[in-house]
Give the backbone structure.
Amino acid sequence: MQSVDLVIIGAGPAGVSTALHLLQLDPGWSGRLLLLEKATHPRHKLCGGGVTRLGLERLAALGFDLPLPLPQARVDDIRLKYASRVIHVRGQPQFVVFHRPEFDAYLADQARRRGALIRENEAVMGLSVEEGGVVVETTQATYRAQAVVGADGARGISRRIMNSGKQPTRVARLLEVVHPAPETAEHFSQRYALFDFSPVHKQLQGYFWDFPACINGEAHFNRGVYDARFAARRARARLPELLHQGLRSRGKDPQEVKLEGHPIHWFSPRSIFSKPRLLLVGDAAGADPLFGEGIAPALEYGRVAAESLQTAFAAGDFSFRDYRSRLLRSHIGHYLLLRWFVAWWSYRLSGSAWFMHTLWSFGKALAASAPRPAALYED
C-alpha cells in the first residue's frame, strides 16, 4: 500500500484545476498529490468544448497566457434563437471552442510541469473511507490517502459512494455529432455560435446547438441537442429525431455522421457535495443545469476545493463540514444557483409560446442594456 496525502480521481478540467490551485496556494504540494486517470491523454471525450469567459478568466488567474496555444474557434457572438427571434450576446470573446482531447491533454501536461503527479490508464475500482484515511484501490495499486477529491464525472465511483441512494440523480441528456465544415462557413467569419431553443415546443427542455470547432487544425461543426429534463413529469423529447431535423435544416445528411450521447449530472442546491475525507468537484458535483456548461464550472470548482483542502490539511480536520457553505457562497456557487433558478422556472414553462416570447423580449432588452465585457482577446 502506497501512502499519499491527497488522491484526485480524474484528470479532466476539475481534477487538474484542483491540483493547479493547490500548487498555486502552496508549491509544497508538489509530490504530495496524485491524480488517477482511467484513460490516457489525449482521451476521447464527448463535449461541445466551449470554455466561457468564466473559465478563461480562471485560467488566466492560474497563470495561463491567453489565448491558449491550442487549435480553437473563437465565438464573439452568441445567438440565442426562439422561432424567428434572435438575441445577440457579444464579447471578445464570449467563449472559445476547443477540441476536448487536446484541451484536457494540455491542462494535464501543464499540471505535470508544475509538480502534479498523474498516473494514466489506472482506473479506480474501490474506495473505502476509514477513520484514519481513505483506501483507494485501482487496477494497478492500492493507496492510502488523507483525503480524496472525486473529479470522475457523473458516472464515476465518487458520486456513487457520495450518493448511496440518498437522493434521486439529477441527470440531463445530450446527443452530439462532429463533422468537417468549410472554412468559408459564416460561423468562422462571423465568429458566432447558435443556441436554438425553438424545439421546446416538441418537449425539449433545452436547445439545439451549432458551434464552430477546430480539430487537428481543420474547421469542423460541433452540433447537438441538450435536454435538461428539469420537469421529469413532462413527456420525453425524442432527441435523435430532433438532432436529425436540426442537421437536415443545415444541409447535413444525418446518415453521414456518427451520433454519440452521454448524461450530464447537473447542479442542485440540494445535492450532497462532501462527506468526511471525500469531496466532489466538476460534473461529479454538478454542471450548469441551464445550458449544460461544464468546463468553466469545473475550473471554478477546483479553486473552492483547493481552499477547502488547504484549510483541512492545516487544521488536521477532514470532515469538510464547511465545503458546502464555501461552495454556495463562492462565485461559482452564485453562478450555478442563478442558472439553477432560471432553469427551474424556464424549463417547466417552456412549452408555453407566450412564456417563451415574454422571456425573449426580456432577454433582448437585457442584452441591449448590458455593458460590453472587457476584451480578453485582441482582434
In short: The first strand starts at residue 2 and ends at 9.
